[in-house]
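User: I'm writing a tutorial on reading structure tokens. Could you give me a worked example: one chain, its sequence, then its tokens, then a sentence or two explaining what the tokens reveal?
Assistant: Sure. Here is the example chain.
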Amino acid sequence: MRVRPDVWFLLILIATTTGLVGCGEEVAKPPPPKKVIVYRVPDILKTRIWSTSGTAKDVLETILSFRVSGMIISLPVDVGQKVKTGVLVAELDPTDYLLEMREAKASLQDILAELRNAKLDYDRKEKLVNMDVISQSEFDLAASYLDSMKAKSAAQNERIAIAKRNLSYTRLFVPEAGTISSVPAEVHTNVAIGEPVATLNSRGMLEMDVGVPDRLIAMVKLNQPVDIRFDVFRDLELEGTVKEVGVRSNETSTFPVTISIGTTDKRIRSGMVGEVSFNFKQAEQYKLVVVPAAAVFGLADGKRYVWIVDTENAVHKREVTISLPGEGGLIVQKGLKPQELIVVRGVHSLQEGQKVRPQEQ
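And here are its predicted structure tokens:
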């Protein structure tokens, strides 16, 4: 059967269209979601009261140590002993220091003898030079020798004074009244200069050192009131105030804070473990949170941004306001909400709306 030309054209057009549609089905698949490390914004207002533990200590706590080294021959104090000013704490073997002082005194006698001879020689040559019997240079030598011996005498007297002081340092006394809280040293052991021999607590105001995490340290202020309870007196609630706020974190990644305990209750003593409670109600006003510094990036407009991961695992850029840099990161004053996820690794390789696979750090 003969096919008309217009029918042939229609068949060719259909075949071409079908081929194009088949090619269109081979469109490249979108890349898989990128894995990112995220950080969950802490909810600092979840609880207004935050507590931590610490140990009470006397404000005036003195480590008693020798200013010279030696072997302890006497240690008459005990832990818990109440002592008065001037009480002997410990004594070192003074033999070496006595010998040092005797040798210094003996050397001084030799120097004084030479000094007397130098003075006699000076006086004699002074008369002779005035009579033109000897030259001026001979007299100058006698004068120089006399000055040298005077200097040696003065230096030796200073050595004797140092030897006397070192000898006096072999006896360690209580500088002020208080209680001996620890005695780490022992009799017949050698101690170095500055090595602790005993600890003296002078009875007075008490304080407590605690550690505050980086997410809360921005809310801790000087003279801020706190509540204190001690384990042995749970029914006794004391008031305290923030005395010092550390600016660097310690080995436990917390910031040191010193609390002044406002009590004269004699039941509370140095060494008792207590609980300090901070009321962060003022956080409602500031809403400050600390985030890792790697999460924040800047653009040409001079503003700071973070990537927010939404519920569908897509990232969106959001402007934030930075308050202060901190040891644990950056303090964000505005722009974040509690429990939001922000990207902390790979922030410079993301695009608006990009799908990701979040993994919390």
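What the tokens reveal: Confidence is low (pLDDT under 50) at residues 20-24. The longest strand covers residues 196-213.
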